[in-house]
Specification:
574 residues, five-stranded mixed beta sheet, alpha/beta
Length: 574
């Protein structure tokens, strides 16, 4: 698929020059900082050297005083407490975080993860029945609850209180809980709005610790869980999230919890520096697999484990769930793509809505992502569960999927999510009407630009500018993620050194050796995955342009810089 290379705005050039002089680095580094909203020396210092002391006062969050007071009462009176969270990574890490802190202070405490298939997402009636019937008086709900107005109202009537720690957009009403912590709710003046669900839970523990003069080191020891939630939930790695992710990664790399260490071992990343990308592609999928294939409770069990032998047994089971998940993912994705390819009407649409009653509910979100990558348009993948059509949706750049689905709310039983990802449930007979209206909405609102995959380019540079010093500074931009992605560069007018070749089992990848004309800067190695179709261009002897990020590659004990090629174009196109 053709891509557009979109050079990011560089900001005010005076700011770039000023910052460059202040930091004593080259203009490219200064430009990268300005693009990230960093315009002064002090802002750059805070960016490159995050500090836990930079975290905001948790009591700036609306209802935090109420939450601490209710939690304190539960501790003082030794009430029976449930820690509740969803079956995804953010939910299970949130539960593990809160449970490990509170189990030292409350004797009768349990955690509860709803079953994906019988209970679904969010606060379930079954969980409320369980809590009331077993004498629990407080539920700390994490990564969910902000829209459970009616359910929490009924729970309150039955003597069950809730503290909600959520980060999703609220509806028109706020639930009648003992306290509602959500920086996105109206009248909440908390300075940072993009915390993960686990991050909101961490702020509650921070506030409780502050109230009780508990050494913060106790909660800092749980930051590896927060980092995993931030990465897996794809929240912006800016501001407070950057601080939490930075120190969470330090913990994850130096002394992770027993359960996370087990997951790291099974993921095959022990001994290397774990990054946000490793969490997204290796740790997160394994923690998600439990809820997709069997039950999310297994993920919490391993995350709170302090026994290596038991953790290893759980890890083996979770890894087997992940293998099943990968098989289902591959097979169902192929079925979905075949449905589109075999139907000219579907191929020509501006959106994709597919339904198959036999698809596995646990992987429809992944399939939606895969189909979106292939056809690059808003996509909804539905299956049948408990007599309803239920599924997941994914979007493309700058298209508000959540708002578009909201315009179909009269056809839905429920929905929730974000701009780029959502979940929804409807009656099966409503699928044709939903498909038609969703297509009409997308067609009316989406632009031609939004239907073409875009690679955002940070700067144009020459290969000769890529030095070890330059790369050392680039590495300090980490942790990378949304709103602080790995810098992407364009270099124009490069040539094959004569040794580039096809590699891979099916010769689907390109191993490149690149040189610049009239520059004695040596040969730069690069790798271009799944771009074998550019081989003839590369070896034609003509110049071409490359779009890439810079990585390190270890081979035979030696580490070298390598270009990770995102796209290749003829010289006269860009």
């Amino acid at each position: 698929m053709d891509k557009i290379w979109d050079l990011k705005k560089q900001g005010d050039q005076n700011e770039v020059k000023h910052l460059s002089a202040a930091l004593n680095v080259n203009m490219v580094i200064a430009r990268l900082l300005v693009q990230r909203g960093i315009k002064t020396y002090n802002e750059a210092k805070a960016f490159f050297r995050p500090r836990l002391s930079d975290l905001h006062d948790p009591f700036l969050m609306k209802d935090m005083d109420k939450a601490v007071e209710r939690l304190q009462r539960a501790v003082d009176n030794q009430e029976k407490v449930i820690v509740y969270g969803d079956y995804d990574v953010d939910g299970t890490t949130s539960v593990a975080l809160m449970y490990q802190f509170l189990k030292q202070r409350i004797k009768e405490i349990e955690y509860y993860i709803p079953d994906r298939y019988s209970e679904g997402y969010g606060i379930s009636p079954k969980s409320i029945d369980y809590a009331v019937e077993n004498g629990f008086t407080l539920v700390v709900a994490l990564d969910c609850g902000i829209k459970a107005v009616e359910k929490i109202g009924k729970a309150k009537e039955r003597g069950l209180d809730f503290i909600i720690c959520d980060h999703h957009n609220p509806g028109d009403q706020i639930p009648p809980a003992a306290a509602v912590l959500d920086p996105k709710q109206p009248e909440c003046n908390y300075p940072y709005k993009e915390l993960s669900g686990c991050g909101v839970g961490f702020k509650l523990l921070q506030a409780y610790s502050k109230h009780n003069d508990i050494d913060y080191e106790e909660i800092y020891d749980l930051l590896d869980l927060v980092a995993v939630s931030i990465a897996a939930d794809i929240v912006p790695i800016t501001g407070e999230n950057r601080v939490l992710a930075y120190y969470g990664l330090k913990k994850l790399n130096s002394n992770p919890g027993v359960g996370l260490q087990t997951i790291i071992n099974f993921a095959g990343i022990n001994g290397s520096e774990i990054t946000i990308s490793d969490i997204v592609f290796k740790i997160g999928p394994r923690l998600n697999a439990s809820g997709r294939i069997e039950h999310g409770k297994k993920s919490v069990q391993i995350l709170v484990s302090d026994d290596e032998d038991k953790s290893d047994l759980l890890g083996e089971e979770i890894d087997s769930f992940n293998e099943i998940r990968k098989t289902l993912d591959r097979d169902i994705t192929q079925e979905a793509l075949d449905m589109i390819e075999g139907n000219e009407e579907l191929k020509d649409m501006n959106s994709t809505v597919l339904y198959n009653r036999d698809w596995h509910k646990g992987v429809v979100g992944i399939v939606a992502s895969r189909v979106t990558e292939q056809y690059y348009r808003p996509t909804v993948i539905l299956t049948e569960s408990n007599g309803m059509a239920t599924g997941s949706a994914r979007s493309v750049r700058d298209f508000d999927l959540y708002e578009a689905i909201g315009q179909c709310s009269d056809l839905l039983e429920s929905y929730g999510g974000h701009m780029y990802a959502a979940g929804l449930t409807m009656r099966i007979e409503n699928i044709p009407a939903f498909k038609q209206r969703f297509e009409e909405i997308v067609t009316r609102q989406i632009t031609d630009q939004q239907q073409i995959q875009t690679v955002e380019v940070d700067a144009k540079i020459t290969l000769s500018e890529i030095t070890p010093r330059f790369f050392r500074i680039l590495k300090q931009f980490a942790p990378f993620g949304p709103h602080n992605m790995t810098p992407v560069f364009v270099t124009e007018d490069v040539f094959d050194a004569g040794t580039s070749r096809l590699v891979g089992k099916n010769k689907e990848h390109l191993k490149l050796d690149l040189v610049e004309p009239d520059v004695n800067s040596g040969i730069f190695p690069g790798i271009a995955f799944n771009q074998s179709d550019a081989y003839d261009l590369i070896t034609s002897g003509s110049p071409f342009d490359i779009c890439y990020s810079i990585t390190e590659n270890e081979y035979r004990g030696k580490t070298n810089l390598q270009l990770f090629i995102r796209d290749i174009k003829k010289r006269d196109i860009f």
